[in-house]
């Protein structure tokens, strides 16, 4: 009889533990699905149940980062209202929610993240690098916003690429012009020895290359004869 009770308890514990694992797995999947699909009601329900809102998925992405990346606005705004949510939680690539908002050109989201003390400056790739890579003219406003919040204009990535270089190769010529006017140094070189004008030429961005070349010419001191 004692053996029966023992095995019965083991069976009950195993069933309970297995059910708990299945429930937790379902909760985990629901959490990240809600972040991707902008399902605010599911996110609110999980929050009320005490789910850790800073949990990361197998790739190391937080729910806030996913929501910003996927354009899940309702979920992103809800998460930003939760004091426990870490707005600076970065994925293994070093990307933060602010960086992705900057890349997407989501000005309102960037403002809200900055209000929550998201870091505008950090070592390595920065939000300004990402903003400068946006191909639309609207990226000017994002760049201005970041500069207003003291983004370092000549921030260097791990290979010493600057925001101006990114704008020259990928971004809009208006952003190249703005960065130059705000003091970006067009003569800096990355680890490969390339300047911003080299980036523009490699990206076949003739307008940006011309803007940089004209700026450099204006800044050269005129000789006296």
From TrEMBL:
- The positions making up the signal sequence are 1-25
Q: Name one GO cellular component term.
A: cytosol
Would I find Transit peptide among this entry's keywords?
no
InterPro entries (alphabetical): Ankyrin_rpt (IPR002110), Ankyrin_rpt-contain_sf (IPR036770), NF-kappa-B_inhibitor (IPR051070)
List keywords of the entry alphabetically. ANK repeat, Repeat, Signal
UniProt ANK repeat ranges: 93-121, 123-158, 159-191
Query: What SUPFAM superfamilies does the annotation carry?
Result: Ankyrin repeat
A GO molecular-function descriptor? NF-kappaB binding
Q: Name one GO biological process term.
A: cellular response to tumor necrosis factor
A Pfam match: Ank
Q: What is this protein called?
A: Ankyrin repeat domain-containing protein
The top of its lineage is: Bacteria, Pseudomonadati, Pseudomonadota, Betaproteobacteria, Burkholderiales
């Amino acid at each position: 009889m004692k053996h029966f009770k023992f095995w019965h308890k083991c069976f009950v514990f195993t069933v309970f533990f297995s059910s708990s694992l299945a429930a937790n797995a379902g909760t985990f999947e629901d959490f990240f699905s809600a972040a991707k699909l902008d399902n605010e009601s599911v996110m609110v329900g999980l929050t009320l149940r005490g789910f850790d809102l800073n949990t990361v998925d197998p790739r190391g992405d937080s729910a806030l980062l996913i929501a910003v990346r996927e354009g899940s606005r309702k979920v992103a705004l809800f998460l930003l209202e939760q004091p426990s949510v870490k707005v600076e939680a970065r994925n293994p690539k070093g990307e933060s929610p602010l960086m992705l908002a900057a890349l997407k050109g989501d000005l309102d989201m960037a403002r809200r993240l900055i209000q929550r003390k998201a870091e505008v400056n950090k070592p390595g790739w920065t939000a300004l690098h990402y903003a400068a890579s946006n191909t639309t003219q609207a990226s000017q406003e994002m760049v201005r916003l970041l500069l207003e919040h003291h983004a370092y204009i000549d921030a260097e990535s791990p290979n010493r690429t600057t925001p101006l270089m990114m704008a020259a190769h990928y971004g809009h010529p208006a952003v190249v012009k703005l960065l130059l006017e705000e003091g970006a140094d067009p003569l800096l070189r990355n680890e490969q020895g390339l300047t911003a004008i080299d980036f523009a030429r490699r990206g076949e961005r003739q307008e940006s290359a011309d803007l940089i070349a004209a700026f450099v010419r204006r800044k050269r001191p005129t000789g006296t004869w």
